[in-house]
Structures are given as structure tokens and as C-alpha cells.
Amino acid sequence: MGQLKLHFTVVPANIDESLREGEAPAAYVERLARAKAAAVPGALVLAADTTVAVGGEILGKPEDATDARRMLGLLSGREHQVFTGIATRQHARVVQTRVWFKPLTPEEIDWYISTPEPYDKAGGYAVQGLAAAFIERLDGSPTNVIGLPLPETLELLARSGLHLPW
């Protein structure tokens, strides 16, 4: 949002982000985005949540190096999906992007988990950072994988009453 010169304030939403039994990735991120939007005061609130899913497993943020190693091993040489739920109080949507990792060597995984990068990212990687070297291709929104799906977010904000400067 900052790169588009839109003024905003970040306000944390204190909600329970626990996954419900049997909850699909798209339903999970939409539920969390809606709950965050409802939990924060303000005239126009935008909330989002992102997760990574591979082989039917939802990957949150790794708890430690062992968990990061496990996640990167799951992603290695495979396709996975990045889901982001975005919501205002009035509207919500989910954006899905398919991502393919190249096969990773144990040395590449060790190198990556020795950096601070994987530990605060869903799925344990940041495509806009060092993990860009692992991405073979994307199908869908690149900004969804980077952090916030910008075209879809701007459309949602406009539908919710924000006057965009263009």
C-alpha cells in the first residue's frame, strides 16, 4: 500500500488464528481476514491473512529451524498454493496463486534457514527475498505471494468506498 502512496495505519487485531478441523485453506484465510476486519475500529478497515498449502497441509509460520527445514522439504520440487484472504467490513475475497519450487539441496535448505528470513513468513519463505532463487514459476498474482494481492485489494477498497487517487 505504501508503494502506491496510500496512507494507512497498521493496527494489530487480536483474534484466535487457530485452524479449525477440516477447514480448507481458502475458507481459513477468509475467516481470519473477516474476523480481523471486524475486530479493528475505524471507518475503513482492510484486513488480510495469508497461508501456504501443499499436499493438503496448511503451512503457517515455522516455529523453529526444524519446522522451517520440514516446510522447505515439503515445498522442494513441488507445486504449492499461496492463499490470501482480504476483507473490509463489507466485502471479502480470497486470492490464490500457484507456485513451483525447484528441487532444493540439503545445503540450500541449511543456508536458507540460517538466515532470519523464513521465520516470520507463511510457508517459511519470502519470494521477494532470498527464496526468489527457489522459484521456478508462478501462476497467478505475484503480489499475493509477496504479501498483499494489490489489484484485488484495490478493487475491494474501491467497492468499500475508498476513493483511489487515479
Summed up:
The protein has about 170 residues and is of the alpha+beta class. It has one domain: Maf protein. The protein is built from five helices and five strands, in the order αββαββαβαα.
> Order of strands across the biggest sheet?
2-1-3-4-5
Rg: 16 Å
Instruction: Sum up the overall morphology in one term.
Output: globular
How is the biggest beta sheet arranged?
Answer: 5 strands, antiparallel
Summed up, the domain count is 1
The CATH topology is given as: Maf protein
Helix content: 25-40%
Alpha-beta classification? alpha+beta
SS summary, helix count: 5
Per DSSP E runs of 2 or more residues, the count of β-strands stands at 5
